[in-house]
Amino acid sequence: MKKSLILVLALVLLASTALFAQGTKEGAAETYKLRASTNLAGTGTIGRGLTKFVELVNEKSGGRIVATANYGSELGNQAEQVEMARTGSLEMVVAAPGTGPGTWVPQLMMFEFPYIFKDNDHYRRVLKGLEGEVSNLVQPYGFIALAGQSQGSRHMLTKKPVTKLEDLANMKMRGPNAVYISMFKHLGAAGTTMDWNEIYTALQTGVVDGMEASPSMINSMKFQDVAKNLTITDHIIACTYYFFNEKWFNSLPSDLQTIVRQAADEAAAYQAIIDDQDQKASLEKMRAEGVAIHQPTDRAKWVAACSPMLAEYRAKGEGWNNFIDKMLAIQ
Question: Residue ranges of the chain with pLDDT lower than 50?
């Protein structure tokens, strides 16, 4: 009898140990790491939006996702960070579509095209309306796209004054991708590409005569310290998306996928509010720091100079045409 009781107790103990071990294993499997990164400064509105996203994911998941973020050049330039997200060294990268996954899907550069969007509200409708299309285009390369965010209307920061189109002639201007280089050519300048984190030194040493970005982006990097003229051109509005590693995202249980999507949408809505505020505040800050603000009276010339570009980009092929049509259909 005693032997039987001992045997039963031993079996119960073994079963309990096995269940405990299984529960521990399952519990460990339910914790997911989310390492996110951007090449932009943590103090800018995209960086602050990413901080908000990380906080929301950690809070909403109740610790089932442990999210962290890196900013600036901590993990390399934008191209290197995008590659890390593609291969799984990161779970998510915040990147401009044209200079991020645009490596493989070049028509995404259309998000940064001169003089085709009415205003920032129109641009944000385009970002949201094309979110699914962007995901479809980058999926073959291992990404899922969420949370398109405007970085605001862009202007030109130069070392010498630019008050009219002719003043831009032959100036060396930094742009992030081929669309910008084409735009500068049409405007009479010489465009060159370089990483965002190389611009300050390039301006300081005279490698370039100017660059372009929104007031918030310029102020976040203090580029106005080395170039003292801002020309209000409103030539392009730029954006970022959250590009998730597809395998990682699809490995999440459905409830955690929902949490990540909700957190991304909330972070994008938060970024939109603070960006509108910061664009105005940054412009005034630059003015107060001695930056001369120029308002060209020949805007029609700038628009006309860039107008042939759309036909040139349509001529690149069916993929470009399809994407351009879908973009222009959103009003």
Answer: 1-29
In the numeric block, which tokens belong to residue 328?
């222009």
Amino acid at 113: F
Best CA proximity match to 74, nearest among 40, 43, 102: 40
Res 30: pLDDT: 80
Q: What is the 3-state secondary structure (H, E, C) of 124-176?
A: HHHHHHCHHHHHHHHHHHCEEEEEEEEEEECEEEECCCCCCHHHHCCCEEECC
Domain ranges of the chain: 31-329
| Strand ranges inside the chain, DSSP E | 32-38, 65-70, 92-95, 143-153, 155-158, 172-174, 190-192, 210-213, 229-231, 237-245, 292-294
CATH of domain 31-329: 3.40.190.170
State the Cα–Cα distance between residues 62 and 56, nearest whole angstrom: 10
Instruction: Find the largest Cα–Cα distance for the chain.
Output: 104
Query: Which of 276, 266, 279, 215 lies closest to 49 in space, CA to CA?
Result: 266
pTM (2 decimals)? Answer: 0.84
**267 vs 261: CA distance, rounded Å:** 10
